[in-house]
Design brief:
Strand 1 (132-134) and strand 2 (137-139) form a beta hairpin. The chain is mainly alpha-helical. It has 9 helices and 5 strands.
């Protein structure tokens, strides 16, 4: 496939930025011990509905308790010596979700996370804002997802767990992820996402899927031969293996509980 030279330059630039992002977050020295996510778990149960709508005003009212949890995250960078793999993954999923909530709280009310501007249009986005401090180092949301979670742990189900504060994102669960329950929690997140008709429209002969399964399909290819195989692992009603596949438009509207229920 031929590309316009400008597009080739942009793709090359993205590759360099992604590579630097991954390198910038490796080998952070830390002697921390695994932390409890009980405070975040309690806040999620209070301020997130079963359908995943978020009461950001409720989080703002509980900002003192929420700040304590963010401080706990900031003081404890996971390490391979004291933390299990599952404890590390749970930490980073919770960190991504919690700091995304903070970002919305800091700019609330806002119609979409994409309305939070930063830097050069189409190059620097809201996901490049370095507002996360962990043991003295600065991070952005892209660092967590694309520099740590995806390359280090090779766990594609994280795409059903991280929440970008948008309607088309996998819903924010009403629990914090933990190392001891991680596998069943990720499976629940996958089932909820795949069977949510607002995210994926499934029928025996045709499926309309979330663009997440287009953008990040490469992360699933080592485990699944096709998107239909992935869908059928979690779908309540199975899809024919030769079903037609299309992708839905992505709704970046805020997953705000106000006015939704």
């Amino acid at each position: 496939m031929l590309y316009h030279p400008l597009k080739m330059y942009f793709l090359g630039f993205l590759f360099i930025v992604t590579s630097l992002t991954a390198c910038a977050v490796q080998d952070h020295p830390s002697d921390s011990q695994p932390i409890s996510h009980a405070v975040f778990d309690s806040l999620l149960r209070q301020h997130v509905s079963e359908a995943g709508w978020v009461d950001y005003q409720g989080f703002i009212r509980d900002s003192s308790k929420f700040k304590d949890y963010l401080q706990l995250l900031s003081q404890n960078y996971p390490n391979d010596r004291n933390w299990s793999k599952n404890e590390q993954i749970a930490y980073w999923i919770n960190a991504y979700n919690a700091f995304t909530i903070k970002l919305i709280m800091d700019h609330y009310p806002v119609a979409s996370i994409k309305d939070i501007k930063n830097g050069i249009p189409f190059v620097n986005t809201v996901w490049d804002i370095k507002f996360i401090n962990i043991e003295g180092a600065e991070y952005d949301l892209n660092n967590i997802e694309h520099g740590i979670l995806r390359p280090k742990y090779q766990e594609p189900r994280i795409h059903f767990a991280v929440n970008c504060a948008s309607i088309s994102c996998p819903k924010l669960q009403r629990f914090a992820y933990t190392g001891t329950k991680l596998d069943e929690q990720l499976d629940k997140a996958a089932r909820d996402f795949i069977n949510d008709s607002a995210k994926n429209k499934l029928s025996p002969d045709k499926v309309q899927l979330s663009k997440i399964l287009n953008w990040y399909w490469g992360d699933f290819k080592d485990q699944y031969d096709s998107r239909i195989e992935l869908i059928n692992k979690y779908a309540e009603s199975k899809v024919n293996t030769d079903a037609e596949v299309e992708f839905l438009e992505y709704d970046w509207g805020l997953n705000d509980q106000t006015g939704m229920e």
